[in-house]
C-alpha cells in the first residue's frame, strides 16, 4: 500500500483525482480485509475504530501532502472591515450555540483571492465525493463581506475526522481548521459551548487569579510538616531534616513557598533562609548562599573554612529554618559536612528540602522525615481546572463540563503543571485550534501553551532563554531588555514600560514565570520553572544562544548571544565570534555560583574596539559584573544600541562618544564605585528613558542639561551640586515623566530655598518613592552664625519640595530646619503614603501630623533629639489614631518621654514595635494588636502594658536595671533577655504559662524562679 501511495502522489495532479484514487484504494482494502476476516480464524480480533481512523489518517495524509504543499501561500491580513464582519459572524454563531446548547459548527476562514480557486475546488471535490455517503456536519464558509453562505457540503464523519485530526496535513494554509483527535475536538467544543450557555465567556484575556496554597501546596502535607517542626525533641541533633520528593511540576516548590510564608513559622523561628541552587553546586557556594540569606546581604567570601565559621556564628543559639529547593547532590560526605555545620543552631532548627531525586533521601540520617507528593486527587484536580479554565462556571453543577473535565484530568492530571497549562489554554485561546497529537510527554502541554501565545509574548520568553536555568530576575529590568529587543509593541496613549509590565503580568498569570521567595516588597524577584525553561529554550535555540562552554560551539546563525561562565581567562572574543553576523544582543550574565566580578581579561579596550566595529547592529549590550575598565570611542558606531549596562564594573569614565548614540533608551551604571561623573554632552541622548546610577556610597555628578531629557522616566539618584558646571535641582522641573523612586541628595548645596520650587515635585504624579537628603543623611555641625540662615534655607526648601499626593514612600534625612513644612501639618497631607522615615532631623521638636494618615503602615524615626512626645497636637477626639500602622521603629530618641495615649480602637493593625536608645521613655501605649515587642538599650525599662496579643518579647542592653515586672501576657510564647548585667529578678515570669522558649544571655546575676521542662532555654 505504501508503494502504491508513493507512486500515486509522485506528481501533483488535480485534487479530485488524488482523493478519488485514494478513496478507491482504501475502499478496496476495506473490502479485502472484510473478506479475509470472513474466512480467517475466529480468534482474530477485528480492527478497532481507533486503529482504522489512525490508518486512514496516515493514508490520506500521504495521498494529499504533495498537492496541499504546492503553490502554498499564507493568508493575507484581513482588512478591518473584513475582520469585523468575520468576528460578527463568529459571535452570532457562538450566541446561537449558547442559546441552543449545541456545539459550534466548523468554520472555514476567509482566504485571499489568490487561493479562492483552490479553496473552491477543494470544497467541490469534498462535496461530490462525500455526498453519496450521507450524514455528517456542515462546513460554513465566511465570505469576504462577512455574510455566511451555506454550502450543502456533507462530509462523511469518518473522513471529516481524518481531515481534522491529521497533524501532518498542511491545511491551515487553505483553511483555519481544527486539528484535533476527534474525541478531544468534541470535548473542547463542548467545553466552550457549555461555558457560553452557563455564563462563562468563550474567550478570555484577563489574568486568572493564582491558585492558593490550600490547593497546589498540598495542605495536608503542609500540616504534617508543621506538626513535625513543633514536636518537642529532647535528644538527637539540633537540626532536623525534612525531605520532599516529587517530579518536576508536581508542586514541590509551591509547598516550600507556602511553608516559607506561613505566619506561624515566621513568628516561631529566629531566621528563615531560602536557597535555590543549580547542579553546579559546590560546598563553598552553598555556605555562601546560607550566609547571604542569614545576613540579608551580599557575601564575597569564597574560603570554605571561613564560610563554615560564619554559618556557625550566625546560627549560634538561634532557631533557624532553612528551605532548600532542588537539592539533588548525591554525595554522602557532602551531606555529612553540611548537616554537621548546621547543627550549630538552636534545638528545633530544621532543613526542609525539595528534590526530584529520591536517592538524595538515602543520604540523610535515620531521624529524617520523608514526604512523597503523590498525584493530586480528582477533587483537587477539578478545583485546579475550575480555577484556570472554567472562568466562573461551576464545573460540578454541570454534567457536561464535569464529564469533559474528568477526561482532561485522566489525560493530564498526574502533573499539576500540565493541567494548569491545559486550563490556561482553554482560558486564553483566541480560537479552538490545538495540535493535540504532541500531548504525549510531561512537557508537551507546556509546549502547546507556548505555541498558542501571541508572537510578542513568545519573543519575550525567547529572550529569557539567554539567562541560565533557575536565574532569578527583576521584573522591571527584564521589561527594559524586552523593550530594547523590540518585544513590546507601542500602544497609543500608553508608555512602553506599562505595556511591557502588562506582558510580564500575563506571563505570570499563565505560569510561564513565577514568584521567587528571594525578594521583598520593593523588588519582586521571579524565576522560570525548569519545565517551562526547557520548552522556551528548545524553541528559541535557532536565534538565541546561551554559551556556558567558553564560546566553543556558537552557531553561525544566532542573533542573540549571552555568556554564562565563571571564568573567561583565555577567551578571545573576536576569534570566537568572527563567524557571527548581524548580532543584536550581547550579554555577559553573572551566574549564581559566581560571587565576584567575572574575570574576562580579553574583554579589554582593544578587543571591545574591534567588537564594536564588527557588530554595528547591536541593540542590547550588557557588560555588567565584569572587570571592564574602559569603553572605546568606537561605541559611537552602535547606532541601533538601545540598552547599555556597565553596572558593577571597574569603569572609571564613560567616553564622550557615547553621547552620539541617538537611539539609546537605557543606560545603567549601578555600583560603579570608580565612576564620578557622566560626559558633558549626556544631554544629547534625547531618547534616554532610564538613567540608573545607583550606588550605596558617594554619587555620580550629572552634567548640565539633564533637564533636556524630557522622556526620562528612571533617575533613582539626583545629586544637587554647588558646582555651576553640574546639574542644578531646578532642571528636575522639565522631567515630568519621572516614575518609581528618586533620591534627591546634596540639598545643603542649594543656597536659595526658592530654587527647589523649580523642581516641581508636586506635579510628578508617577513618583512613588522620594528621599530628600541633606549631608548624605548625616548630622551637620555649623558655626553659630550660620545656624539661623541654614535653618531658614532648609525650611524654605522643604516647603517647596512638596510631592504629589500619589507618593507612597517618603524619607527625610539630615533635615536642617527646626519645623516641618505646612504641607506636613495637615491631618492627611499624603493620603496614599505607606512608609515614612524621619532620620537625623535633629533641630525639630515636634512631629508632623501623622496620627490620621489613612494608609501609613511603616513609621521609622531616628535621631530626633528634641522630640518629647510622638503626638503633641492631636485634637480629633474620637478619630482612630494610626488606623493602618503595622510597624513602629524608634531609634536614638534621647528626649522622648511618651509616645501617645492609646484609646480603645487605636492602632488596630500594629504588629511590631521596636524601640532602641530612648532612655527617658517611661511607658508604652496599650496597643492590643501588637505581637512582637523589642526594647533595646536604656536607663530604665519602660512599663509594659497588658498586650493581650503579644507573642514575642525581647529585652536587651538595659545594663543598670536590677529588676522589672511583666504583666499578664496570655499569648506570649517567646521571651529573650540579653545583656542586662545587673538584672537580678523578673517579677511575673513564673505566671507566663504559655511561654515555650525562654532565652537568657549576658545576665550573670539573674535567678530564674521556675524550671519548667517545657521551656527551651
UniProtKB/TrEMBL annotation:
Residues 79-89 have a biased composition (Low complexity). This is NB-ARC domain-containing protein. The keyword Translocase does not apply. Residues 466-534 form the Disease resistance protein winged helix domain. Pfam families: LRR_R13L1-DRL21, NB-ARC, WHD_DRP. Residues 225-393 form the NB-ARC domain. It comes from Urochloa decumbens. One of its GO terms (biological process) is defense response. InterPro entries: LRR_dom_sf, LRR_R13L1-DRL21, NB-ARC, P-loop_NTPase, WH-like_DNA-bd_sf, WHD_DRP. Keywords: Leucine-rich repeat, Plant defense. Residues 730-864 form the R13L1/DRL21-like LRR repeat region domain. The keyword Metal-binding does not apply. Residues 28-119 are annotated as: Disordered.
Amino acid at each position: 500500500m505504501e508503494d502504491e501511495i508513493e507512486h500515486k502522489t509522485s506528481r501533483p495532479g488535480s485534487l479530485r483525482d488524488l482523493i478519488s484514487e485514494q478513496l478507491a484504494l482504501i475502499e478496496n482494502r476495506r473490502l479485502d480485509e472484510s473478506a479475509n476476516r470472513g474466512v480467517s480464524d475466529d480468534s482474530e480480533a477485528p480492527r478497532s475504530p481507533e486503529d482504522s481512523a489512525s490508518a486512514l489518517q496516515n493514508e490520506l495524509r500521504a495521498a494529499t501532502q504533495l498537492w496541499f504543499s504546492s503553490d502554498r501561500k499564507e493568508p493575507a491580513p484581513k482588512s478591518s472591515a473584513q475582520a469585523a464582519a468575520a468576528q460578527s459572524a463568529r459571535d452570532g454563531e457562538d450566541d446561537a450555540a449558547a442559546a441552543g446548547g449545541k456545539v459550534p459548527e466548523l468554520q472555514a476562514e476567509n482566504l485571499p483571492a489568490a487561493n479562492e480557486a483552490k479553496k473552491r475546488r477543494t470544497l467541490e471535490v469534498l462535496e461530490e465525493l462525500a455526498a453519496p455517503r450521507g450524514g455528517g456536519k456542515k462546513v460554513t464558509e465566511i465570505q469576504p463581506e462577512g455574510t455566511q453562505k451555506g454550502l450543502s457540503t456533507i462530509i462523511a464523519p469518518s473522513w471529516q475526522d481524518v481531515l481534522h485530526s491529521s497533524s501532518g496535513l498542511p491545511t491551515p494554509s487553505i483553511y483555519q481548521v481544527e486539528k484535533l483527535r476527534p474525541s478531544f475536538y468534541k470535548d473542547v467544543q463542548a467545553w466552550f459551548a457549555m461555558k457560553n450557555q452557563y455564563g462563562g465567556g468563550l474567550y478570555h484575556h484577563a489574568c486568572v487569579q493564582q491558585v492558593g496554597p490550600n490547593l497546589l501546596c498540598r495542605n495536608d502535607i503542609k500540616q504534617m510538616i508543621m506538626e513535625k517542626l513543633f514536636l518537642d525533641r529532647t535528644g538527637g541533633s539540633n537540626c532536623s531534616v525534612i525531605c520532599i520528593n516529587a517530579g518536576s511540576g508536581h508542586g514541590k516548590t509551591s509547598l516550600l513557598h507556602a511553608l516559607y510564608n506561613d505566619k506561624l513559622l515566621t513568628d516561631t523561628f529566629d531566621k528563615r533562609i531560602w536557597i535555590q541552587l543549580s547542579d553546579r553546586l559546590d560546598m563553598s557556594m552553598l555556605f555562601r548562599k546560607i550566609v547571604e540569606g542569614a545576613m540579608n546581604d551580599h557575601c564575597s567570601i569564597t574560603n570554605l573554612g571561613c564560610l563554615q565559621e560564619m554559618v556557625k556564628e550566625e546560627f549560634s543559639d538561634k532557631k533557624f529554618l532553612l528551605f532548600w529547593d532542588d537539592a539533588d547532590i548525591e554525595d554522602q560526605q557532602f551531606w555529612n559536612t553540611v548537616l554537621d555545620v548546621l547543627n550549630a543552631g538552636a534545638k528545633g532548627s530544621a532543613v526542609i528540602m525539595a528534590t526530584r531525586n529520591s536517592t538524595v533521601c538515602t543520604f540523610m540520617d535515620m531521624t529524617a522525615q520523608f514526604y512523597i507528593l503523590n498525584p493530586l486527587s480528582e477533587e483537587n484536580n477539578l478545583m485546579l481546572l475550575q480555577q484556570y479554565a472554567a472562568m466562573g462556571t461551576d464545573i460540578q453543577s454541570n454534567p457536561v463540563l464535569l464529564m469533559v473535565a474528568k477526561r482532561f484530568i485522566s489525560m493530564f492530571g498526574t502533573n499539576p503543571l500540565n493541567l494548569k497549562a491545559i486550563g490556561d489554554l482553554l482560558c486564553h485561546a483566541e480560537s479552538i485550534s490545538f495540535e493535540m497529537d504532541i500531548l504525549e510527554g510531561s512537557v508537551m502541554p507546556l509546549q502547546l501553551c507556548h505555541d498558542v501565545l501571541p508572537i510578542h509574548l513568545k519573543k519575550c520568553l525567547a529572550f529569557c532563554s539567554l539567562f541560565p536555568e533557575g536565574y532569578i530576575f527583576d521584573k522591571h529590568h527584564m521589561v527594559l531588555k524586552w523593550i530594547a529587543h523590540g518585544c513590546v509593541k507601542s500602544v497609543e496613549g500608553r508608555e512602553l514600560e506599562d505595556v511591557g509590565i502588562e506582558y510580564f503580568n500575563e506571563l505570570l498569570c499563565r505560569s510561564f514565570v513565577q514568584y521567587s521567595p528571594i525578594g521583598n516588597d520593593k523588588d519582586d524577584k521571579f524565576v522560570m520553572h525548569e519545565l517551562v525553561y526547557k520548552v522556551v529554550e528548545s524553541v528559541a535555540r535557532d536565534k538565541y544562544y546561551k554559551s556556558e562552554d567558553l564560546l566553543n560551539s556558537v552557531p553561525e546563525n544566532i542573533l542573540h548571544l549571552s555568556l554564562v561562565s565563571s571564568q573567561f581567562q583565555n577567551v578571545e572574543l573576536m576569534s570566537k565570534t568572527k563567524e557571527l553576523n548581524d548580532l543584536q544582543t550581547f550579554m555577559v550574565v553573572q551566574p549564581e555560583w559566581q560571587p565576584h566580578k567575572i574575570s574576562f581579561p580579553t574583554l579589554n579596550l582593544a578587543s571591545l574596539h574591534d567588537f564594536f566595529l564588527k557588530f554595528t547592529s547591536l541593540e542590547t549590550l550588557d557588560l555588567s559584573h565584569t572587570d571592564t575598565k574602559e569603553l572605546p570611542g568606537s561605541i559611537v558606531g552602535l547606532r541601533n544600541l538601545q540598552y547599555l549596562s556597565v553596572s558593577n564594573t571597574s569603569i572609571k569614565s564613560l567616553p564622550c562618544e557615547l553621547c552620539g548614540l541617538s537611539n539609546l533608551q537605557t543606560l545603567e551604571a549601578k555600583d560603579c564605585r570608580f565612576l564620578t561623573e557622566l560626559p558633558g554632552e549626556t544631554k544629547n541622548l534625547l531618547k534616554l528613558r532610564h538613567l540608573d546610577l545607583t550606588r550605596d556610597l558617594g554619587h555620580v555628578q550629572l552634567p548640565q542639561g539633564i533637564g533636556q531629557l524630557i522622556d526620562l522616566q528612571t533617575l533613582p539618584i539626583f545629586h544637587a551640586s554647588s558646582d555651576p558646571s553640574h546639574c542644578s535641582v531646578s532642571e528636575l522641573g522639565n522631567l515630568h515623566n519621572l516614575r518609581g523612586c528618586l533620591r534627591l541628595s546634596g540639598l545643603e548645596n542649594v543656597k536659595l530655598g526658592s530654587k527647589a520650587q523649580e523642581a516641581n515635585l508636586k506635579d510628578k504624579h508617577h513618583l512613588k518613592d522620594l528621599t530628600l537628603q541633606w549631608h548624605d543623611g548625616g548630622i551637620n555641625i555649623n558655626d553659630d552664625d550660620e545656624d539661623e540662615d541654614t535653618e531658614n534655607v532648609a525650611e524654605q526648601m522643604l516647603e517647596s519640595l512638596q510631592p504629589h499626593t500619589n507618593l507612597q514612600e517618603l524619607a527625610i534625612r539630615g533635615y536642617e530646619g527646626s519645623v516641618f513644612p505646612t504641607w506636613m501639618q495637615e491631618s492627611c497631607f499624603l493620603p496614599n503614603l505607606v512608609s515614612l522615615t524621619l532620620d537625623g532631623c535633629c533641630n525639630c521638636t515636634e512631629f508632623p501630623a501623622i496620627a490620621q494618615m489613612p494608609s501609613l503602615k511603616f513609621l521609622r524615626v531616628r535621631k530626633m533629639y528634641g522630640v518629647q512626645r510622638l503626638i503633641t497636637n492631636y485634637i480629633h477626639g474620637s478619630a482612630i489614631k494610626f488606623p493602618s500602622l503595622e510597624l513602629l521603629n524608634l531609634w536614638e530618641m534621647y528626649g522622648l518621654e511618651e509616645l501617645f495615649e492609646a484609646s480603645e480602637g487605636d492602632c488596630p493593625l500594629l504588629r511590631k514595635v521596636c524601640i532602641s536608645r530612648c532612655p527617658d521613655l517611661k511607658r508604652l501605649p496599650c496597643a492590643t494588636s501588637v505581637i512582637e515587642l523589642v526594647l533595646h538599650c536604656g536607663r530604665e525599662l519602660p512599663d509594659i502594658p497588658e498586650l493581650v496579643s503579644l507573642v514575642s518579647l525581647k529585652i536587651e542592653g538595659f545594663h543598670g536595671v536590677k529588676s522589672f515586672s511583666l504583666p499578664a501576657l496570655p499569648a506570649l510564647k517567646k521571651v529573650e533577655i540579653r545583656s542586662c548585667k545587673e538584672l537580678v529578678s523578673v517579677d511575673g515570669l513564673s505566671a507566663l504559662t504559655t511561654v515555650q522558649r525562654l532565652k537568657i544571655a549576658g545576665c550573670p546575676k539573674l535567678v530564674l524562679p521556675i524550671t519548667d521542662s517545657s521551656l527551651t532555654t
